[in-house]
UniProtKB/TrEMBL annotation:
Keywords: Coiled coil. This is Uncharacterized protein. The keyword Cytoplasm does not apply. It comes from Euplotes harpa. Residues 134-161 form a coiled coil. The lineage of its organism: Eukaryota, Sar, Alveolata, Ciliophora, Intramacronucleata.
């Protein structure tokens, strides 16, 4: 995002964790059947067991409806629903395969990297809102490093990877959809606290991104057949969970999702916690929300039919008829 669309995000100091962990696992050459077999492992069950801290993330509600049956056993959230939440393990399912950016992901191949050194900063002062702007941030960092160089006889250096990209005037115009896609991808891959599994039925769209990740040495590519020897996958997906989730844990997750107004996902959690009353409450809220949406849509049609003088009589009649149908559905 910083390379191609620097003006669309605030620029901050890079974060680093004190704790190390396994790299995200990118599955290559796997079909949905292979994925299911890998998750089941040596278990006699035909369905893998998921805990409340294991989630499947998909790009939208449509993809959620097309999930294979064995993944519907897990808590499934869209990228939007998962924003702000954290889980132990995440399966990112068909993110690239369903991407509206299509072959525009190829622009990632334009990024080149060089290993460089710079003065290490210890910033005590807070940056202002204006200094979070990409241009202002770079200017501020350059100024601070110059001050350190002038004030101190010995300065501490740090290694970093500098990204370079070809100048493309058409990027903002022709590749704007990729800006949102990269932001959604960022949200998705930063949800897991422990492990991330990336799976796509069609791997064509993700080729450029996966190659970039490989060049950065930030992913573990698992080819078909290698899962049997992989320390995190050889016994099936259940090894990714520390323990099975209790009813209380499922209930707490359900409450968290209910507060975010994700009623269907919350109902799924309450079903696993065997809280029937809370489950039905979620479903009631969901139906009420749907009815309210239909009512609003119907009111908009009626308003257009009544006030839009450009519409012909048959068009106004059609809108009023459609509004009646929506009102009926809302009831």
């Amino acid at each position: 995002i910083e390379c191609f669309f620097p003006e669309t995000i605030d620029k901050l100091q890079r974060e680093a964790s004190d704790l190390d962990g396994p790299k995200p696992m990118l599955l290559t050459g796997f079909s949905e059947e292979d994925l299911m077999a890998m998750m089941i492992g040596h278990s006699e069950s035909r369905n893998p067991t998921f805990g409340c801290n294991q989630v499947v993330i998909v790009r939208d509600q449509e993809t959620k409806q097309t999930l294979p049956a064995f993944l519907k056993q897990a808590l499934c959230l869209t990228v939007y629903e998962a924003k702000g939440l954290e889980f132990d393990d995440v399966i990112l399912f068909n993110f690239f395969a369903g991407s509206p950016a299509g072959n525009k992901w190829r622009i990632i191949k334009d990024i080149t990297m060089t290993a460089e050194k710079r003065i290490k900063l210890k910033i005590d002062e807070e940056l202002t809102i204006n200094e979070l702007d990409a241009t202002q941030f770079d200017r501020k960092m350059k100024k601070l490093r110059q001050e350190v160089k002038e004030d101190e006889e010995e300065v501490e250096m740090e290694e970093y990877t500098q990204l370079h990209v070809k100048e493309r005037n058409e990027i903002l115009r022709d590749f704007s959809v990729l800006c949102n896609e990269l932001k959604h991808l960022y949200v998705s891959v930063t949800r897991p606290k422990v492990r991330l599994l990336i799976f796509d039925v069609d791997e064509k769209n993700r080729h450029a991104m996966s190659q970039y990740w490989e060049d950065c040495n930030v992913i573990d590519v698992v080819q078909k057949g290698e899962e049997k020897e992989h320390p995190l996958l050889k016994h099936g997906f259940e090894t990714l969970a520390d323990s099975a989730s209790s009813k209380i844990e499922w209930r707490m997750m359900g409450i968290k999702l209910f507060r975010k107004k994700f009623y269907i996902s919350a109902a799924s959690c309450f079903e696993k916690s065997e809280d029937e009353d809370l489950k039905h409450k979620c479903l009631a809220y969901h139906h009420a929300e749907q009815a309210s949406s239909l009512e609003s849509e119907a009111d908009s049609l009626i308003y257009a039919a009544t006030n839009n003088k450009a519409l012909k009589k048959f068009e106004k009649k059609a809108k009023k008829t459609e509004a009646k149908i929506l009102k009926k559905k809302a009831c």
